[in-house]
Design a protein that fits this description.
heterodimer, A: about 550 residues, alpha/beta, four-stranded mixed sheet, about 45% helix, B: about 120 residues, mainly alpha, three-stranded antiparallel sheet, 4 helices, 3 strands, about 10% strand, globular
């Protein structure tokens, strides 16, 4: 059983088997294509079709059949000849001898850098576009003539849109020699419309519109390219950041979980949570932080490599996991926050012996003995020279347990030191208990008061916003000689305002202050820059 | 290649003359022409004939009229136009000359007037 198709050849109806039809169709197309470059193609093809119809009729009548089969088509081709057989006696000579038609100036859309102007001109003069472009580029530097010329030509010269226009641009006669088979077919249609299309006058307005449109397209193309470039650069950057971030975070969190020895637990924010909560919160925080980095990493890969495939399920799991760890992080945070509900304060005061001449010397104890936990051993490599140095890392460098010193005028005639320890806790008693663990030392020796820079704890404590404030109350007209290294611990005055040697380390310089009704006042104010300048001038004059 | 090319050129040269001669015998249908040409081994496939006929007709050597056919569409029957008849008689003369030239050229050496004596 075979499917048949009904066809009409020169007005005669035939039934033809499907596969026979395919063969016939291809053959007829070949024939049409072959003759399409001839002036008389229509007539020739009609003649051939007539003959085909006749042959088929004869065949069917002779063999008393209704339907054309593939064998009939092969018989036809044998009789009529394959296209290759036509070549021999075809009108080859004629096509070869046909002269080139006159070239027309078009812009070439197939070989363009901006608007195809240069390429079009090159085609018109049968030159290499490179030379025209070079010439125009040179003209560009002569008062921009090249630019103006280019824009003008862009507006005036029409673009070669249709194939026939492109062929005219190249001076090809509108026949098919030298053009590939597929193009031939296309041309067959174009040719019929050619006369009207070729003489079609494009209104000037359209030309401008055309130009503007192309200009906009060009700008869009450039912008698009820029955006893509930025996206690529950004994603490379993010890829890098993501990668480094992931590695760093993993290292930090492994340290936090004490997988390898470190004193991470002593630092913020890990001192917030007690041991039971610490591991849990650390893990949840770790995932909360790392998952977005992984997402950035994956998205960057996706942008960089268009074909990269991100498993949707994996992405979904990551998202879910992130939400869960975010929730756990929130839970840990709320647990910790509970311990900050109440604030407790402990106040202790000590009256100082009255000093001679009403002078006190304030000093910082830089020789505070540190425990091994407080010091950090850093192994660093400097210019290839390996040095090992033990730094006396001091916790006062972080703001956590630094002491704050305030100096006030006392109401009576006594000098006192008030130390206030404060801490937070879930309940008031918890808070006070936490405050009680704060340990702070200062030493009194005659009129010399030496402060420790930091407070410590009597036992291991979590961070519960522990603070220690020292208030030194002195009567009016009491003088203070304050060492420079105390500057950063003093709350309400700046030692820098006092006169000091700018060339020497400020830490070792002493400044003199006096308590007045208006607060602590420097005995001798620092002379501002103007003065130091004149000093410098003086010194140069002396030289 | 050279042989083939020359053969093609020779065939091509006399093909139009032959077609005109065949048509000169009376009103002829294209497939009758191809029958004779095939017999003469001048042309094998029919497809080649149609462009030639059309060109001859467009050059004014042939005229045709349509005739109803018992099988299939109407047929084109060709005959020589006035010009065609004139051209053919010219060609007849040329052919006589050519055939003389050829027969002379291919005659065995001893029968020709000696050139080298």
């Amino acid at each position: 059983m075979n499917k048949t198709i009904i066809i009409n050849i020169s007005g005669v109806i035939f039934h033809i088997e499907e596969d026979a039809y395919e063969v016939l169709k291809n053959y007829m197309n070949d024939v049409k294509r072959h003759f399409s470059n001839s002036e008389d193609s229509f007539e020739i093809i009609t003649d051939i079709e007539n003959r085909v119809a006749e042959m088929f009729s004869d065949l069917l009548k002779k063999e008393n059949r209704q339907v054309l089969i593939p064998a009939d088509i092969h018989y036809l081709i044998e009789r009529m000849g394959k296209v290759a057989d036509f070549e021999e006696t075809s009108t080859k000579e004629e096509t070869y001898s046909k002269p080139e038609t006159k070239r027309k100036l078009f812009r070439n859309p197939d070989d363009k850098i901006i608007g195809g102007v240069c390429s079009g001109i090159a085609n018109y003069f049968d030159a290499d576009p490179v030379w025209i472009r070079l010439a125009l580029a040179v003209l560009f530097f002569i008062f921009g003539t090249g630019f103006l010329l280019y824009v003008l030509l862009w507006i005036i010269v029409p673009v070669a849109k249709t194939r026939s226009e492109k062929m005219q641009m190249k001076g090809q006669k509108l026949d098919l020699s030298g053009i590939t088979q597929s193009v031939k077919e296309e041309l067959g249609d174009l040719r019929r419309n050619f006369n009207s299309a070729g003489t079609l006058v494009v209104p000037a307005g359209d030309k401008v519109k055309n130009f503007v449109q192309e200009l906009v397209e060009l700008i869009l193309r450039v912008l698009g390219g820029l955006v893509r470039l930025i996206a690529v650069v950004a994603s490379v950057l993010f890829l890098f950041i993501g990668f480094i971030g992931i590695i760093a975070l993993i290292a930090v969190f492994l340290a936090a979980l004490n997988v390898y020895p470190s004193n991470f637990q002593d630092f913020f924010p890990l001192q917030l949570a007690d041991n039971s909560l610490q591991t849990f919160s650390t893990v949840s925080v770790a995932f909360t932080a790392i998952i977005p980095l992984i997402a950035i990493f994956l998205i960057s890969i996706k942008i960089l490599f268009k074909n990269a495939y991100i498993n949707r399920k994996l992405a979904l799991y990551l998202l879910l996991f992130w939400i869960v760890s975010l929730a756990f992080t929130g839970y840990s945070a709320s647990q910790i926050a509970k311990d900050f509900k109440e604030e407790g304060k402990l106040e202790k005061s000590e009256t100082l012996l009255e000093s001679k001449n009403k002078v006190y010397y304030l000093n910082l104890n830089e020789l505070t003995p540190f425990s091994s936990e407080d010091s950090t051993t850093i192994n660093f490599n400097l210019f290839g020279e390996k040095k090992t140095k033990v730094l006396r890392g001091n916790m006062a460098n972080s703001d956590f347990n630094r002491v704050e010193i305030k100096i006030e005028m006392s109401e009576d005639n006594l000098s006192t030191i008030v130390s206030t320890a404060s801490a937070h806790g879930n309940t008031l008693s918890d808070a006070i208990q936490n405050a009680e663990k704060i340990q702070y030392n200062y030493t009194l020796q005659d009129s010399i008061i030496t402060f420790d820079p930091i407070f410590t704890f009597t036992q291991k404590s979590l961070n519960r916003k522990q603070e220690l404030e020292i208030t030194l109350k002195i009567p009016e007209n009491t003088r203070l000689i304050i060492n420079g290294n105390l500057d950063r611990y003093l709350n309400n005055i700046s030692l820098w305002e006092c006169k000091h040697d700018e060339n020497r380390d400020f830490k070792d310089q002493k400044t003199e202050w006096m308590m007045t009704r208006n607060g602590l006042v420097c005995k001798e104010k620092r002379i501002k820059n103007t003065n130091t300048n004149t000093e410098q001038v003086d010194s140069t004059q002396n030289q | 290649m050279i042989v083939e090319n020359t053969q093609t050129q020779m065939r091509k040269g006399i093909l139009e003359y032959c077609i005109l001669s065949i048509i000169a015998k009376g009103e002829t249908y294209a497939s009758d022409i191809i029958g004779e040409l095939r017999l003469a081994r001048l042309m094998v496939v029919e497809g080649t004939l149609y462009p030639l006929l059309t060109r001859l007709k467009n050059n004014g050597l042939l005229i045709y009229n349509w005739q109803e056919s018992v099988s299939g569409p109407p047929r084109k029957y060709y005959k020589l136009s006035e010009t065609g008849i004139q051209v053919l008689s010219e060609l007849d003369k040329t052919w006589t000359e050519l055939s003389y030239a050829v027969s002379l050229s291919i005659q065995p050496k001893n029968n020709t007037t000696p050139f080298n004596s």
